[in-house]
Design brief:
The chain is an alpha/beta fold. The chain is 35% helix and 17% strand. It has one domain: TIM Barrel, CATH 3.20.20.70.
Length: 287
Amino acid sequence: MAKTIKQNRRLKPDWLKIKVPMGKTYIGVKEIIKKHQLNTICTSGHCPNVEDCWGRGTATLMILGDVCTRACRFCNVKTGIPSKVDFDEPRRVAESVKLLKLKHVVLTSVDRDDLEDGGAAIWAETINRIKAEMPQTTIEALIGDFQGDFQDLKTVMESHPDVLSHNMETVRRLTPKLRSKAKYDTSLEVIKNISKFGLVSKSGIMVGVGETQEEVFNTMDDLRKSDCKVLTIGQYLQPGGWNFDVVEYIHPNVFEIYRKAGINKGFRHVESSPLVRSSYHAEKHIH
């Protein structure tokens, strides 16, 4: 039986305690991001690894605004009717990557189901602009499902990011409870198409939301059938009162079981520990 701890919002286990970001590098990056009106999932998602990543020259920038058209139960990003597309955003993002001297950048976005192409054209332009400004900077694109539209996915794939990622988020049984619109099989198809295109494919899941170990292993198998190369597994932490409740705090020993199982199943790289998020150590996932 897996070692777990029932949720206690007033007392998290020791392995989930993190220090408040205070370093000089963190403060410098934060000031640049604010000055250039950039959105980052590092801050909006309350990522526990923000100081570590920014200190290593890695950041996760969120494009296409900060309002999502979906309302997933696990997510802290604002939901509603987004503002109009900012066509100057790709330029600002590229210039900021240069100013921040990022060695590796992870791009993600809100879901833009209101747009005909789901924002694919802005995705491609942003990646191409970064390549032009900072050819030595490696890029991971963490995309949504584009409602299963292959042409929109192809638009992004043809910009050739170093890693193209799409998160499953959870196991099949819990997908309807946590994800407002995305479907488990649609996400698998996105990963499959990324792999067939020849890019490094990557996905991530959260645990502690009521899944069983067998369901986690089954999700790994489904991803490997889609030739997914990189997998991240981290503890779900409830970001707000309306979000899905944490069911369990998974013990670090179980995360190590998952890591070893993933390697044995054929993943090229597996990041699995309580504080792992999809962009954690992302620069290692390229090769």
